[in-house]
Design goal:
about 180 residues, alpha/beta, about 35% helix
């Protein structure tokens, strides 16, 4: 799959800038998230460099035959119904696995949002795992994993620093109007 993924990325015109995260457990932030294609491109990217990442997907998507492919691409079913606590479920996953690189988007949707979600921050703090910044820049067609992002105890300040990082890099989503780094 590694060579096929690298071939498909090149065929689609993408360049790779990154590495497989060295820690066995981490959260990899993916931004900007403006298209369902971000999932496909990021899957091809991480696979092409030899990594295996997971994503949280609502359990309703795990029906035959779709569920088979979602699992193969790293999907983990998550229960979002009747008071289910996604953060608690995710911390439990980290605590019960030896390896998990979890890709998450702080925007929480493909629509334009000013207020990013801090669930990744809470998960990382409770599971005691690092966070890395990643990006899919549709303007330059470069997909990247950047440096480790050091968290503080102030999630709002950390989200501001994260937005500043993406703004300074000039990263553009597939649908640029759906991405903002405003506070």
């Amino acid at each position: 799959m590694k060579k096929l993924s690298a071939f498909l990325l090149r065929l689609l015109g993408w360049k790779v800038n990154g590495f497989v995260v060295p820690e066995p457990k981490c959260i990899i932030i993916g931004a900007p998230h403006t298209s369902a294609w971000d999932f496909v491109i990021s899957y091809l990217f991480y696979t092409s460099i030899g990594g295996k990442a997971n994503v949280l997907v609502k359990k309703e998507f795990f029906f035959w035959p779709l569920g088979y492919f979602v699992r193969k691409m790293g999907g983990i079913p998550i229960d979002r119904s009747k008071g289910a606590n996604v953060i608690r479920q995710t911390v439990h996953l980290f605590n019960t696995r030896d390896y998990m690189h979890l890709a998450m988007t702080p925007e929480g949707t493909r629509k334009r949002v000013v207020r990013w979600k801090a669930g990744f921050h809470t998960i990382a703090k409770h599971a005691d795992i690092p966070v890395y910044l990643g990006s899919f820049d549709w303007g330059r067609k470069v997909i990247s994993i950047w440096e480790k992002f050091e968290l503080t105890d102030d999630s709002k300040a950390d989200l501001k620093r994260m937005k500043d990082f993406y703004r300074e890099k000039g990263i553009q989503g597939k649908f640029p109007e759906n991405f903002t780094t405003e506070y």
